[in-house]
Every structure is written in structure tokens, then in C-alpha cells.
């Protein structure tokens, strides 16, 4: 299993904000307590794509969480365009055609491609409502196997499925999990969650934490606390 040299790299702070200036201010407040940041839909579509090379130039890592999914050519060319921004990770949805296209578009120097299996806001009832014949765990396992065959660098899944995913994808691919909440935190809209300590015990490489850090009175101290739990 990959093991980051800097334990801070195991924590990815989600910059789920709608304003680039606010995101930059939060990065400054957190300082050296974190080294890895996630930019998702909300910030990316508010000018956050321009923030990727700025953070990368400072030696920070960026997880660009765009969950791409479209016809193969569109995904391939989209990933090729994104590759020059300097992101460390980029997400796509775990559909075979999409994953193969993303791997083609990445090239030799592009970001590591992570496949999103089943969103952590989904439970069994949500999967049924969406029309899936498989339950959540079986669907995660199936998509993880397809990701392995497509040459994907890692999997995004719930911490609850991490052990099963590791058994499918092997020791050399990354497992990244959102839906991590320190003990006592509000679950928000997440349904399949773990604490940082439980995530560490499950063999997860990177955890994504948003509101418990971004909404904390002292975001830097909360980040340090979570890194300590993971270490």
C-alpha cells in the first residue's frame, strides 16, 4: 500500500467554498498543518481551476474532484486539457469506457486518475432508487475490479468498503475516502462514515475532510488533530 512520506499528505482538506478569495484565506489560516487540498464542483466553477497551479507552485498538492463522465472522446480530451494544471489527483466516475478514456488522456505526466465507485451519500435505498440491480457493496466491488482492469491509479469509496476494495485492487493502488468525520462531528449529508482513527486502521491512504475543518473555530488545530489520529 502506498505510504506518503509526510503524514500530512494523508489528509486532504476539502475547499468546498464558493469563492476563491475565501479558499485562499482558508489555506493561509491552515498554514503548514495541511499539504493537500481538494477542489470540487463548487469552487472549480467559481474560478477555482485557476487556483490549482497557484497551489501547486507553492508545493501543495491538489485533488481536483470533477467526477468526469461523458462519451470516451470527450473525457479523454477533457483530461488532456486538465493535465497541465498541476493537480495530483483527478476523479472520474467508475464506468469502464470513462475510465479507459481518462487513462488515455492523462499521458505520462498527468494527474493520478481516481475512480469514484458509489457516492458516500448513497445507501441501499438510494442505490435501488437509482435503478441499480446490485447493492452498494457489490456495486463498489464490481466497479473496483473494472477500475483495476482499466489501469486506474486509485479508488474513491466509503471507508466501510475500503477493506473489500483493497482485496479487489491489490496493494499498489490508492484508496481515498470522503465521509470522514472526527468523533462527535455532525454527519451532514454523509451516510457511510468513519472516524480518522478507524480509517487508518482500515488501511486507507488518504482521507477527505471538509466541514469539520473548514467550519472549525481553529481550522489549523483541527487539521493537526486529524493528522495525529491518522498517524
Based on the model shown, name its key terms.
Orotidine 5'-phosphate decarboxylase; 8 strands; about 230 residues; 8-stranded parallel β-barrel; TIM Barrel; 11 helices; alpha/beta
Question: What is the element layout, followed by pairings?
Answer:
Layout: E1 11-14, H1 20-30, E2 36-39, H2 41-44, H3 51-57, E3 61-68, H4 72-82, E4 89-93, H5 96-106, E5 112-116, H6 124-129, H7 136-150, E6 154-156, H8 162-169, E7 174-177, H9 196-201, E8 206-209, H10 211-214, H11 219-230
Parallel strand pairs: 1-2, 1-8, 2-3, 3-4, 4-5, 5-6, 6-7, 7-8
Helix pairs in contact: 4-5, 5-7, 7-8
CATH structural fold name: TIM Barrel
Radius of gyration: 17 Å
What's the story with the biggest beta sheet? 8 strands, parallel, barrel
Q: Determine the mean pLDDT.
A: 90
**What is the CATH homologous superfamily assignment?**
Aldolase class I
Shape category: globular
Strand content: 15-25%
End-to-end CA span: 15 Å
> What's the helix-strand series?
EHEHHEHEHEHHEHEHEHH
CATH structural class: Alpha Beta
**Which sequence of strands runs across the widest sheet?**
1-2-3-4-5-6-7-8
Pairing-aware structural class of the strands and helices? alpha/beta
| Annotation, overall tally of beta strands | 8
Helix content: 40-55%
Query: From the 3D coordinates, which CATH architecture would you assign?
Result: Alpha-Beta Barrel
Total count of helical runs of at least 4 residues: 11
Could you name the ranges where pLDDT drops below 50 across 5 or more consecutive residues? none
Number of domains in the coordinates? 1
